[in-house]
Amino acid sequence: MAAEDDGGPALRIRIDFPDRPSLGPGKIALLEAIESAGSITSAARAMKMSYRRAWLLVEELNSMFAEPLVTTQLGGARGGGAMVTPAGRGVIESYRAVEARAAEATEDLLGALSDPDPAADDGLQGEAGR
């Protein structure tokens, strides 16, 4: 998101479901790291996370949706691996779309929050009364 790139305030989205665990930036980043690295081990290493923690998150992600988001293959001569499924790719894309729309919708307010004197910004004053 642009605000993170320029050192301004950042919006982080966590989606809370009534009947299953939350989906947020950490789980999405793990899915993207698995997609990039091709294994849970490499993704965990890239994220400075233990393999066990990454594996538990993958199990949780797979239990949250009707179809698994990550599939694994046992090691062999070439070693095992992990793959983000089409359902997993869809979850990543949907999450990133929600994130982008939220960032766009709040861009002016986030900018006002980065001002050391937010009370001087009429835009923020107007939003506070709603």
Which helices and strands, and how do they pair?
Layout (H helix, E strand, L loop, with lengths): L1 H4 L19 H13 L2 H7 L4 H14 L5 E4 L7 E4 L1 H28 L8 H7 L2
Antiparallel strand pairs: 1-2
Helix pairs in contact: 2-3, 3-4
The structure class reads mainly alpha
CATH architecture: Orthogonal Bundle
- CATH topology, what is it called? Arc Repressor Mutant, subunit A
According to CATH, the homologous superfamily is Winged helix-like DNA-binding domain superfamily/Winged helix DNA-binding domain
**Total strand count, please?**
2
- β-strand amount: 5-15%
Total domain count: 1
Reading off the top of the CATH hierarchy, the class is best stated as: Mainly Alpha
Overall residue-averaged pLDDT value: 86
In spatial order, strands of the major sheet run 1-2
Biggest pleated sheet:
2 strands, antiparallel
Q: Note poorly predicted spans.
A: none
Helix-strand topology string? HHHHEEHH
Q: Percent helix among the residues?
A: 55-70%
- Distance linking N and C termini: 26 Å
Gyration radius (Cα, Å) is: 19 Å
Can you tell me the overall shape? Answer: elongated
Protein name: Molybdate transport system regulatory protein
InterPro entries: Molybdate_resp_trans_reg, WH-like_DNA-bd_sf, WH_DNA-bd_sf
Region (Disordered): 108-130
